[in-house]
Structure formats: structure tokens, C-alpha cells
Amino acid sequence: MRYSTVQDVLETFKSAVYEKDVARYLSIYAGDIHMFDCWGDWECVGLSQWEEIVKDWFGGLQEEGVTLKTEFDDVVVQENSNLAFVHCNVTFAAYNESDEKLRHMTNRFTFGLRKDAESWSIVHQHSSLPISMETGKGIFNLK
């Protein structure tokens, strides 16, 4: 797939998560993706490693019978002809089959994108949470 704008990448992120479409979701990432995540393994290098994580994530959502809606807030995009930098807050909200909201969380995200052959893809992704000084635990819903 070709993504002519950075916004196309972000919209595909949202819709592919909602549809639990692994192939479409992975299409926004470069093969040499380098990721720092606030879950599990801490770091992910390469599309094949990310694919396994995404399959587990979407599979878990499928087993649970939930749909995940994604919203981007406070989005800041800086770009030139071949590189872009995005930072934002991303809220993931899980809904059951009756469209009842079950839970939600908000993470901070930073994306680094590269344009190759006139198409944008994510080459670096970093998600994080603020940490409570009292408990040492992540704060999922600060915003």
C-alpha cells in the first residue's frame, strides 16, 4: 500500500486496529522498524518480530470479543520531503459487541516516518506512560 501523507498512515493505524487487520496494520511500518514499547519485551526490531506481537495483540482482542477504537489527540507533525516526526497521545478504548465501553487507556506516542518511493512508513515508534512517583507504576489515564 502507498501512503501519500503522514495523516494517511495515522488513519490506517486507527482503522486497521479497529478491524484487527494484521496485514493492513503492518503495511504502515518499514521493514527495518525499531520500536520502544511500554509493554512486554521493551524493544522490537524488524517487521517480523513486530508481526508476531501484533498477531498476539489482535488475537487476544478477537478471543475477548472486543473492538478497539483508537483516537489521536494533541497531534504534532513536523515533516520535510523525506522524514517526518509525530508526537501525540493515543487512546485505546475497548468496546463489547453491544458497543458498551469496557475500558480505555492513553499512551504517549512518538513516530518517526520515512518517505520511500513516494510513500510514508513508520521507521521508529516509541510509546510511553508517565510513572507515579508514589507507586512506581504507569499512569494509564492521565489525559
Question: What report would you give on this structure?
Answer:
- The chain is an alpha+beta fold and 143 residues long.
- It has a single domain, classed as Roll (Nuclear Transport Factor 2, Chain: A), CATH 3.10.450.
- Helices cover 26% and strands 44% of the residues.
- It contains three helices and six strands; from the N terminus they run H-H-E-E-H-E-E-E-E.
- The protein has a six-stranded mixed β-sheet with strand order 2-1-6-5-4-3, covered by helices on one side.
- Strand 3 and strand 4 form a beta hairpin.
- This is Nuclear transport factor 2 family protein.
Helices, strands, pairings?
Blueprint: H1 6-19, H2 22-26, E1 29-36, E2 43-45, H3 47-64, E3 67-79, E4 83-95, E5 101-116, E6 119-128
Parallel strand pairs: 1-6
Antiparallel strand pairs: 1-2, 3-4, 4-5, 5-6
Protein name: Nuclear transport factor 2 family protein
Domain SnoaL-like: 6-131
